[in-house]
Amino acid sequence: MRGLPAAARGYIGAVALAAALCAAPAIRLGADAPWSSTLALALLYALCEQVRRCPTVGGRAPTAAGPATGSASFPAGWASPVLLAGVCLLPPPLAALTAVPGALTGPVEARRAGARRIWHAAALAPACWAAAEVFRLTGGHPPLSAPQFPLLLLPAAAAAAAFCAVLAALDGGVLVAAERHPVRTAWRGLLTRSLGPHLVHGLAGLMMAVLWRSSYGPPAALLVLLPMCLSCWVFARCHRERAAHQATLRALVQAVDIKDRYTRGHSERVGRASVMIARELGMAEDRVEVLRFAGILHDVGKLGVPTRLLRKEGPLTPQERRIIELHPEYGHEIVRGIGFLGEARSAILHHHERLDGRGYPYGLRGHHIPEYARVVAVADAFDAMTSTRSYRRARPVPAAVEELRKCAGAQFDPRMVRALVASLERHGWHPELVTAAEAEPGAPRDGDGVPRHGGEPGSGGRRATVPPGPRPEGAGRDGAR
User: Fold this and answer.
1) pLDDT number for residue 58
2) Which of 64, 87, 232, 264 is the most exposed, having the fewest neighbouring CB atoms within 10 Å of its CB?
């Protein structure tokens, strides 16, 4: 936890203390408490967490890049029915204890792994305690038996909802403290996205609990986990297919980088800046992900532009510029058949439009320009200004921000500019150490959406060599402003 902000350390410590207070009354329960069931459920939950490490189930094997982990593909909450069975079977303090061993030993991301494990255990223990209290207060109490099963549906649903609500509340707090998310958006969607799955897990947990106390005993309860494991394996397969789709998209980006070497890394950075804007605006995570694709693929249409034009060192003729300005339409045609991109396709087509209608390819105005395109336009211009080119050094971030503000309202959507500025103030900007221009010192200059008022600092007056035409003032190599 050494590298965490002080606020995050304090928050995690406070939640860990609350978890300890939830479990502490277990000491007074004595030998008559169901300690054997507590131990069995805790070991079962820990085993389920370890299953996520198995490459054949959904994780990946250890590599030189890092240890094995299944968290990227096998869902972390798939073993929640075990915890919710404990909620139905055990007193609240013991229910809180069942989550601790699995949370402390389960797979997590390598970065700050210790802090992540502590947080995982600290959050799950109060959630289990609260769920067990709600189960008890709503009429559910051991011993459980099969005839009681229909009557316990409501208490089990209430317990699962309480479990979900506590986790959502705690997760939102750690996003504010550790990730510095804005308070107004940190909790947005956390409860609604997870409530449905947790209600299903609550029903599965109740079934496990009833079978656990039935004449068939605990081994019968394991049968409930089999369909859960199968469905999660299917989920992992779908995740792998999605990862393959993403690899295909990255191959397209790499092809653009090879063809237009002076902007290598630019697409990834535009995707990153687009995500920063989207999160500041409070977009749902599924939209944020699509917008990231839009940023990464915004220049994929350059594959249809002759390489000699992209690498031409002298000024472009009006005809050559018109050819380069076709790249948004080429990009839209390339990705037209990729269904999961959704709104990203409109961003690829329209990211060079301007609010004042002087952009291309269709000269759209104001809010007729798709929202995603307005986001990508700001991210594109910001990265171009803060990246080194062969004819000028990178602008400092404050200078680039000031230029975006000057162009807000005419070229860029002011709302998107404000969102990027707010995100930069909160998170900073950390581009790659080696830019494409440094890797290719002889590369030609470009525009990439850079807004300009008058001469470009450090450009040596070369903007004067750009031939006149109908394009907006300040158009660069690809016709961007």
Assistant:
1) 47
2) 64
Q: Using one digit for the tens of pLDDT, what is the confidence trace for 174-223?
A: 988 888 888 888 888 888 888 988 898 888 899 888 888 888 888 888 88
Could you tell me where the DSSP H helices lie in 138-189? 153-178, 183-186
The length of the chain in residues reads 481
Query: Can you tell me the distance from the alpha carbon of 386 to that of 371, in angstroms, rounded to the nearest whole number?
Result: 23
Selection from 320, 378, 306 nearest residue 347 by Cα? 378
Q: Tokens 């790249």 sit at which residue? A: 327
Token pair of 236 as six digits: 């992992």
Tens digits of residue pLDDT in 318-349: 999 899 899 999 999 988 887 778 889 999 99
CA 258 to CA 450: how far, in whole Å? 22
Domains of the chain: 6-54+68-238 (no CATH), 260-465 (1.10.3210.10)
**Token pair recorded at residue 301:** 């249409």
**What is the arithmetic mean of pLDDT over 292-321?**
86
> What Cα–Cα distance (Å) separates residue 301 from each residue in 11, 145, 292, 314, 437?
47, 64, 17, 22, 21
- pTM, whole model, 2 decimals? 0.56
Distances (CA, A) of 36 to 115, 215, 251: 29, 17, 53
